[in-house]
Design a protein that fits this description.
This protein is an alpha/beta fold. The chain has five domains: 4-98, Ubiquitin-like (UB roll) (Roll); 119-187, Ubiquitin-like (UB roll), CATH 3.10.20.880; 195-332, Domain of unknown function (DUF4445) (Nucleotidyltransferase, domain 5), CATH 3.30.420.480; 342-388 and 489-595, Nucleotidyltransferase, domain 5 (2-Layer Sandwich); 393-463, no CATH class. It contains 17 helices and 26 strands. The strands form six sheets. The chain has a six-stranded mixed beta sheet, with helices on both faces. Strands 25-24-16-17-18-26 form a six-stranded mixed beta sheet, sandwiched between helices. Strand 11 (204-211) and strand 12 form a beta hairpin.
């Protein structure tokens, strides 16, 4: 029997017993302490920092030796994914290491929604059973509605209870299934049916509570995707899921738990019961979709990246572990390709790509950035591995958009003027901050087109620049921009620009031919467009052609919740898409290398 040691996470007050020799990241996950771990525990991103207060850990690894300064090592800083507990330990968890600190953008521009939900409510006044009327409860309701009525066991239970609790006066939430009508809930008269729309991103979950009789948004909420503790990108999570059979169940359970918490929180804010949520529309990339459904993800990890299923799914909420109305149903829209999921289908819908119109490009920026070009009735789509740099990962002083994160930078008179989230003292750089910092340094001639720092008067070439000196930061350390940080931005922006150029080439178009550039996603909502154009992430076209629409995937999910027509249009969208796999594209490497340079391409 292995010896157990206690790991105490302060100031969170979380404590867990684990076998001696366990790594601290695994201990944190078991204790419910959600540490950032962009690289999936590979010791690369440096986000899962903790400080040893008491106890004995394994010696510093080579990765930790390279990451931490002598002062940080002396202070007891460790990477949770690398340090092993050899005794009872007391740890201090810095706020910047936690998932819960980040600002999460949920809203998006909703140009139109046709109101025609799949669910409708009917008030019935049914006679109670008697010796002269021995019909069962389901038949009694079906005959009053004059439709074939189907119900699962929880919905039947709710119907029987509601009929007797309210003297035969009941409100039924019903869903038309074509050949029959499905009973979703039975409740007191005038109880409004509610819907839940969720954009399940790799980083965040954005949820919306919708009144299904008026279409009103009753509330919105966001949370970090808890799977991020097992890897920031879906490749890391797929690798984790493939390590052991139970790991896939862990990823599913963590996601479902968070969805249930969001539903409960939204209903509490709206003064409603979670049992009023009778339908949900959930969108996400292909991997998140498969994790939610408990489907195998091994084929998504190797070429040709085939999904288990791509067509729309309509599933009972109870089958996935969501605690909503007794007979609640979930609609999962169609996927497009192995790395292009229903979230992009929803974003295309919200951006009106379902109707042939002007030549337009949609760039939905995330850890994986999906790009689509609509021209001549066809949609060309690709997915680029832009990486987590835009989330502040792999950046020396990177962090999420939490209070104190530098989000805006202006370079003037030989120094940086910075603006932070919440107006707090700066403690790091979020994605928009590092991108704008690099753009300002390039514009000032401090960085050249290759992303290299210019030589100093003494002939030396610096490897970093102090953006905010330690005397002005919230933690007493310099905030710097390193050559590696610049390279991370080059990789991210180069991947996006290469994808854009390939789609334009495939369509036989120039950037000037595109009349509408739609920039979606949380990062895209806060992105400084002039900076992105200056660096060459987007072509140098008039800025008035760009439209920053925020969470387009969330908007598309809401539209599908409120409109059967929009749901049908979304189902047809993937049939118009020609997906281009960039890893197999002959010209990709050349275009990617070219796109890494700053300025006009």
């Amino acid at each position: 029997m292995s010896t157990l040691v206690t790991v105490d996470f302060e100031p969170l007050g979380r404590r867990i017993q684990v076998p001696a020799g366990s790594d601290l990241l695994s201990a944190a996950q078991k204790a419910g302490v959600e540490l950032l771990a962009a690289c999936g525990g590979m010791g690369i991103c440096g986000q899962c920092r903790v400080r040893l207060v008491q106890g004995r850990l394994s010696p510093l690894t080579a990765d930790e030796e390279a990451l931490f300064t002598p002062a940080e090592r002396s202070a007891g800083l460790r990477l949770a994914c690398q340090a092993l507990a050899h005794s009872d330990v007391l740890l201090e968890v810095p706020p910047e290491s936690l998932l819960s600190q980040a600002r999460l953008q949920t809203e998006g521009h909703d140009p139109r929604t046709d109101f025609d939900p799949a669910v409708h409510a009917v008030d019935l006044s049914l006679p109670l059973p008697s010796q002269q009327d021995l019909r069962d409860d389901l038949r009694r309701a079906a005959e009053a509605l004059a439709v074939p009525l189907h119900a699962n066991l929880p919905a039947l239970n709710a119907l029987s209870r509601a009929l007797r609790a309210h003297g035969g006066q009941v409100r039924l939430a019903l869903r038309d299934e074509g050949e029959f009508t499905r009973l979703l809930s039975a409740s007191a008269p005038e109880t409004p049916p509610l819907g839940l729309a969720v954009d399940m991103g790799s980083t965040k979950l954005a949820a919306f509570l919708i009144h299904l009789e008026s279409g009103a948004v009753l509330g919105q909420a966001a949370a970090m995707n808890p799977q991020i503790s097992y890897g920031e990108d879906v490749i890391s999570r797929i690798a984790y899921a493939n390590k052991a059979p139970e790991n896939r169940a862990v990823l599913q359970t963590r996601l479902v738990e968070s969805l249930n918490q969001l539903a409960q929180s939204l209903c509490a804010q709206a003064g409603a019961a979670v049992e009023q949520i009778v339908e949900g529309v959930l969108v996400g990339n292909t991997a998140i979709h498969h994790f939610l459904c408990g489907l195998p993800v091994e084929p998504l990890g190797t070429a040709p990246y085939i999904a288990a299923v791509s067509q729309p799914l309509d599933l009972p909420a109870e089958a996935l572990g969501l605690h909503l109305a007794p007979g609640a149903m979930l609609h999962l829209p169609a996927l497009i390709a192995g790395y292009v999921g229903a979230d992009h289908t929803a974003a295309l819908l919200a951006s009106d790509f379902d109707a042939p119109s002007a030549v337009q490009v949609l760039v939905d920026i995330g850890t994986n950035t999906e790009i689509s070009l609509s021209a001549g009735g066809q949609i060309l789509t690709c997915s680029t591995a832009s990486g987590p740099a835009f989330e502040g990962a792999h950046i020396h002083d990177g962090m999420r958009a939490a209070p104190g994160a530098v989000e805006r930078v202006r370079w003037a008179d030989g120094r940086a003027q910075v603006f932070t989230v919440g107006g707090k003292a700066p403690v790091g750089l979020c994605g928009t901050g590092i991108l704008q910092a690099v753009a300002e340094l390039y514009g000032a001639g401090i960085l050249d087109q290759r992303g290299v720092f210019q030589r100093l008067p003494d002939g030396s070439r610096p490897s970093q620049l102090v953006l905010v000196p330690s005397t002005e930061t919230g933690h007493g350390r310099d905030i710097v921009v390193t050559r590696k940080d610049v390279n991370e931005i080059q990789l991210a922006k180069g991947a996006i620009r290469a994808g854009i150029e390939i789609l334009l080439a495939e369509a036989g178009l120039r950037a000037e031919d595109v009349q509408r550039w739609v920039i979606a996603g949380a990062f895209g909502a806060y992105l400084d467009l002039p900076s992105a154009v200056r660096l060459g992430m987007f072509p140098a076209v008039p800025l008035e052609r760009f439209f920053q629409v925020g969470n387009a995937a969330g908007v598309g999910a809401r539209q599908m919740l409120l409109s059967r027509t929009r749901r049908q249009q979304a189902a047809a969208l993937p049939q118009r898409v020609r997906y281009i796999e960039l890893t197999a594209y002959a010209d990709f490497t050349r275009r990617f290398v070219q796109s890494m340079y700053f300025g006009s391409i």
